[in-house]
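$ ./design --mode recover --in tokens.txt
reading tokens...
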């Protein structure tokens, strides 16, 4: 089976739990380190799926790799190659498919639950999710819904937290987090962390009950990642 290409935009925001999830299912994973100037492939020939991770930059920034990734996402979507996006990665997918990326009404950082939006009968797998679980968030921008996409979630502070379009899955939130990643982000982004408020938790708040929060997050992630993989077309290398 060809590997899943995972596009990393900054060293501290790697695939995290997703890598563990794929490894447990014997699905190879190849990290494209965009942050280390590794080139963005021009086609999907060598990948069975594409995953785009987060990062502190904006999709609207004038960075050469952003255009390259947008082009690759459009190719993958047109060829029915499975695509998944987390936060910045989700914003990239939204923009590539015709959505807009603008400032969210507030910065949302910390552990907050999401709510289901759609009641579409074809998305019965959403019934498996526990919407009492706290999901990790870290963003100041948000995406809009591309044409024909089905909205999945919202949160108290963000009106659209995810959507699905065929075998393309997009999340604004971070289900890929593990305990190490939360600590790493708090250290790396410490100087940029806004003052605590209703929509922004302090570092101490984010580390409270971290083991339980991460365990619940991974149960939530398992459902979503499993559903994404159910649409996988395995291509033998």
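writing sequence...
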């Amino acid at each position: 089976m060809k590997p899943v290409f995972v596009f990393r935009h900054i060293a501290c925001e790697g695939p995290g739990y997703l890598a563990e999830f794929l490894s447990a299912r014997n699905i190879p994973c190849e990290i494209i380190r965009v942050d280390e100037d590794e080139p963005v492939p021009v086609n999907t020939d060598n990948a069975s799926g594409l995953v785009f991770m987060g990062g502190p930059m904006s999709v609207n920034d004038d960075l050469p790799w952003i255009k390259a990734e947008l082009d690759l996402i459009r190719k993958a979507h047109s060829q029915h190659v499975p695509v998944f996006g987390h936060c910045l990665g989700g914003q990239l997918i939204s923009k590539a498919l015709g959505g807009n990326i603008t400032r969210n009404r507030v910065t949302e950082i910390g552990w907050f639950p999401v709510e289901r939006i759609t009641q579409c009968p074809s998305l019965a797998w959403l019934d498996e999710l526990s919407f009492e679980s706290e999901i990790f968030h870290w963003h100041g921008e948000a995406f809009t819904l591309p044409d024909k996409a089905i909205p999945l979630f919202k949160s108290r502070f963000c009106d659209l937290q995810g959507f699905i379009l065929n075998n393309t899955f997009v999340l604004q939130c971070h289900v890929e987090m593990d305990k190490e990643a939360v600590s790493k982000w708090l250290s790396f982004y410490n100087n940029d962390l806004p003052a605590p408020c209703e929509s922004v938790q302090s570092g101490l708040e984010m580390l409270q009950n971290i083991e339980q929060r991460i365990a619940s997050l991974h149960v939530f992630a398992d459902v979503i990642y499993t559903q994404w993989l159910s649409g996988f077309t395995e291509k033998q290398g």
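exit 0
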